[in-house]
Amino acid sequence: MTARFSLTWELDSLYPNPQTPDFRAALDELKSATSKLADDSDALPSVSGDTENARGWSDFLKRYEAVRSEYTAIRAFIECHSAADAANKLCMQIEGELAAQMPQWSRIATNIEFALQAADDGAYKAFIAADPGLKLNAYFLDTCRRNAALRLPKDQELLAADLDVDGLHAWGRLYDRLSGELRVHVMEKGEIVSKSPGQVDWDSPLREVRENNFLAATKAWKTLSDTCSDAINHIAGSRLTKYKRLGVDHLAAPLALNHMQRETLDAMWAAVTARKSCLAQYLKKKAELLGLDKLAYYDVDAPLPSAGTQSSSLSYDEACDLVLKSFGAFSPELGDFAKMSLEKRWIEVENRGGKRQGGFCTDLPTRKQSRIFMTFTNTVDSMSTLAHEIGHAYHTWVLRDEPGLLRDYPMNLAETASTFAEAVLAENRLASCQTREDKLALLDKMLGDSVAFLMNIHCRFIFENRFHQARASGEVPASRLCELMLAAQQEAYLNSLSDDGWYPLFWVSKLHFYITGWPFYNFPYTFGYLLSLGTYALAKDSPDFPAQFRKFLVATGNQDAEDAVQNSFGYDLRQPDFWHKSLDIVEQRVKLFLELAQ
């Protein structure tokens, strides 16, 4: 039977194939425009209320927006080709060329930020008022002025950016190459087969399969542990060297990147720590249902023995239909967008070897399009991933006609749209469950997500926080990294797993620790998850909530996290109230799960 929705994406309409002279010409044109923009940024007018100076800045920002959008789109295009074919040497080379442009972009950002910082408050206020284009982009300029506090003196900042190409970012690219080439040898139907890490699942109903796959994956990742130890140490070491000179701690930059305050982060983790003991009850009951004393790491996502139709294999078409039905019931606009994404082949899901692990959504602003990358494994979990990534794409879609410099949003608010989309799917499916078994299985999946965001992500934050503290005194060997990870897992999971069921090598396998452009690529997921739960609860009391939520998504490009939430929903994220409102939902789901499991 022919699938109605394509398993592979369409890229040819975006840019010429990377192998063609036409693509090389587009790349060279981009590099030339970037170089010219960087040179011009060296001679930006002074920041003042002078009309001519303000107009010069406004014109420069228009060019900056256009060239940056083209750079973002071409980089996304190459990222798509590289993810679909991890061994593509040409795309690796082009990725290197694009990475080599990063010092130019850092130079531009540095020039903008230092020029804005140099003006006193009165001159800056008059500057913004002097030109309509500057007024329009005031939030972008305010953010740049604020970010200057995280810059070294100008000459040092530009040198650091040059050095990062073959230092910091090179370690990240090395990890991408090694993890993309890694193969896991697993047993299937009496034969040893070689798979990419992303193809190896730990959610089989058979425990021996889960355990064998886990052990095989661990064995494969262990072969990279020494090299990954070098990579993670040098990535963190590069950052810490800069932070030390700036006189800031290792959380200052990630908080600034997420446009949020330390009080908000502390309030969130305090609420999570105070309330997640209910998840330990859930894990204990799940172990009992699986006939185990305690779960191992590879049991957490296992289906329940009587999982009903919720654990049955899903075709991609069936998954798409469920996503479209759920999205359309919540918001016709969201449903129509998801349908368009599928029909226009913006999504790559084929389960084949040679692909990179994981999933992502990437934006091509000059085309007003997105592309989604994942591997669909005929599971409910894969369907949730599909909903998650479409949520990301919808977020960029509603921002597509906003000013170019106000279409960027921080990662913590980006994860709100995606996890909200997952919640829409899950709640719609829960309401339509016909049997106790189906409801129990779906609650198991929903609480599995809670474990991921409130325990697994918390573990990543604890590990990375303590690793940076240890790294300040020198390199941390692989053995110590395993110890730090084990301790973080035991704390974050409240010692709910079996003594021999932990995953100390998680720091090797999780690519998020090696993303060089975004430090602490973890807590924004928990932020977005809890924000999505809380806002979804608000949706039940507001018939006009889809429009309100859309307005909030637009605000993510022109307001700080606290302001966007306060102005859209009336909650102060620096206080515990909203976080506990979100965690109430998790607790209610645990209570229902325990009742049904009796």
Architecture overview:
With 598 residues, the chain is mainly alpha-helical. Among the domains are: 21-166, Butyryl-CoA Dehydrogenase, subunit A, domain 3 (Up-down Bundle); 224-311 and 418-598, Oligoendopeptidase f, C-terminal domain (Neurolysin, domain 3). The protein has helices at 21-41, 51-84, 89-100, 102-118, 121-129, 132-136, 138-147, 154-166, 168-181, 207-222, 225-246, 252-257, 262-275, 277-289, 316-330, 332-343, 380-398, 411-431, 436-471, 478-492, 506-509, 523-539, 545-555, 561-569, 577-597; strands at 184-188, 191-195, 347-348, 360-364, 369-373. The strands form two sheets. A three-stranded mixed beta sheet has the order 3-5-4, with helices on both faces. It has a two-stranded antiparallel sheet with strand order 1-2. α4 (102-118) packs across α7, α19 (436-471) packs antiparallel against α22 and α23 (545-555) runs antiparallel to α24 (561-569).
- Taking the alpha carbons of the first and last residues, their distance comes to 41 Å
Structural class of the helix and strand makeup? mainly alpha
Strand order of the largest sheet: 3-5-4
Strand content: under 5%
Mean pLDDT: 94
* Fraction of helical residues: 55-70%
Order of helices and strands: HHHHHHHHHEEHHHHHHHEEEHHHHHHHHH
Number of separate strands:
5
So, the CATH homologous superfamily of the domain at 224-311 and 418-598?
Oligoendopeptidase f, C-terminal domain
CATH topology of the domain at 224-311 and 418-598: Neurolysin, domain 3
Level-1 CATH class name of the domain at 224-311 and 418-598: Mainly Alpha
CATH architecture level-2 label of the domain at 224-311 and 418-598? Orthogonal Bundle
Unreliable residue runs: none
